[in-house]
């Protein structure tokens, strides 16, 4: 069984690599629609709409205008997640996302961090780096 570490992970926004990336998460879900009938002994469901979203965590870099700077609150971005890196054959997940949250954290004796909350609009597409 293959497994990987996060050391090679990348995120691109509009074709530009996000600088100072510390991590990211992607969450997918589907709505369960009950299709029970009177007298059914057990609940049954069908799948409705799917959705996705997640977060991106970075060390704050105010000079990264095409990566972190492109993810201003309320913006729509084309985003590609590369969990394994960008070598041919590596897995990629891509889609269009809205930036629905932005947080900057400052603490004594700590690197300033910036987190982005994203909400997908449309499908998340699985592929491979070519």
Protein model, in words:
It is a single chain. The protein is mainly β. It has a single domain (6-29, 46-125), classed as Hcp1-like (Pnp Oxidase, Chain A, Roll). Helices cover 0% and strands 56% of the residues. It has no helices and 7 strands. It has strands spanning 10-13, 16-17, 21-34, 45-59, 76-82, 91-105, 113-128. It has a 7-stranded antiparallel beta sheet, with no helix packed on it. The protein is globular, with a radius of gyration of 18 Å. The protein starts with 9 loop residues before the first strand and ends with a strand. The model has no long low-confidence stretch (mean pLDDT 96).
Number of E strands: 7
Q: What is the share of helical residues?
A: under 10%
Low-confidence stretches: none
How confident overall, as mean pLDDT? 96
Quickly list its features.
130 residues; mainly beta; seven-stranded antiparallel sheet; 0% helix; globular
